[in-house]
Structures are given as C-alpha cells and as structure tokens.
Predict the 3D structure of the following.
Amino acid sequence: MEVLWSVITMGALGFLFSFGLVIAYRKLRVHEDPKIEKVAEILPQANCGACGYAGCRAFAEAVVKGETTPNGCPVGDADVVKQIAETLGVSAAEVVKKVARLHCRGTHEAAKNRGVYIGISTCGAAHLIGGNKQCSYGCLHFGDCARTCPFDAIYMSEEGLPIVIEDKCTACGKCVEACPRNLFELHPVSQGIIVFCRSKDRGPVSRKVCKNACIACGICSRACPEAIVIENNLAIITDYKKIDPEKIPEVEKCPTDSIGRLKKEDEG
C-alpha cells in the first residue's frame, strides 16, 4: 500500500511540475522573428566578426531588428545583400568590394636588418623589442597576417612581404588587426594607387634604412596637390577620388617607388 501511494504521489508531482513548465514556457518564451533564421541561412557562415557582431547569427538578429544594414557583412557579395534585402522587404544598398592592401615595400633586399633576430617568430613578438629591421615602421616579415587570414587570401612572398590574393580577400579585417605596425588597410578594389610606406622619419633617415621608403620629397604632392599632401615626413592621399588619372605618371616619378599604382596596368 505504501508503495502504491508513493507511485501515485510521484506521478501527481510529475504531472504538476510538467503542467507548471508548460505554463512557464507559454508565458516566458521569446518569440523569434522567423526572418532571423532565413537571413542567417543566406549569410556565408564565416563567423569572422568583421561586421562588428559575434558571428553570422548575431548579425542576422541585428539586421532583422534594423540595427544594421543588409550590406553590413563585408564577406557577403552583392547576391547575398540582394537576398537579405528581399527577405526583409527593403532596398539593397550598393556593395563596393573591398580588399586588404599592404602599405609597405620593405622587402628583404630593400629594408636593412638591425641584426640577427633570435626569438619567437611572430610579428607581434618581434615588434615588442623593436623588430629585426632598422625601419621601425615597416613590415616585420613573420607573416602574422597570413596566419590569421581565415580565407587563405594572404601568403608570404620570397621577398618577405605578404601578398594579398584579391579574388579570395573578403575584407574581413583580420589582417588589419593582426599587423602590429598598422600596415594594412581596406580599400575599394578599384582604388589602385596607394602610398607604400608608413615611415614618419625624415627623408635621409628613411632612405638610409629602406630603399623604398617615402623621403617626403614632395614630387607626388606637387603633381597632384588636390589629393596628396606631405604630413609628418610622409605622403598622404587625402582624397582618392580627386586623383586625376592623367597626373598619375607624374606622381609615379617618385624616386623610391613609395607611391603609385598597385599594378602598373591599373588606370588609377
């Protein structure tokens, strides 16, 4: 008899607790917009965080809530943006493809060594002790950028500099974060002319430690003053859109090749 009552009591308690859970679920459950799942499925699932959110799912929630725009995912192409916009019933913003660009031409041959580096073979570690190169602004050649790229869009050349494979680059920004000397920037792929230097040393000092360093001679700024200035001993492009293609040959008379087209076949 005692066993029977125990079974009945346990059954009643189980039913009571189950009923309570059902009530709690109906009262407390969070209604998720079905569009979130649809947008999440459209996204490339890179989970790189370049959009500013923890991952693709978090970005999907944000875009559905209106906290960001359909083109907020740098990895997604125009087709992804279009699909997201159609799912949300909004207009698709124009997508401008961007890629990572390296602002340095300090190859093994061009940039002089400070000495023999013996230590952890990472840019981050080498930078902490001043690096293995006499130039304190240039590439350290250990490839942190290539290792951190989740899309295998960067490899180290025999000359010691990282090479960006533009067809693979998604402008996720991981290389920008990885470089301790801030040598990477994200540029529109159509933007072909850049300054390949970050040195702020005076011209004679820069030229002494790297043959390809900017020496602030002013040839480029005189050729195109509306778009290029000299600040802190370094050429700065203030407005890429104002660079006159006809003036590029004059700009490229730079004696150290520290400014010019990324590819000579580019128009600008």
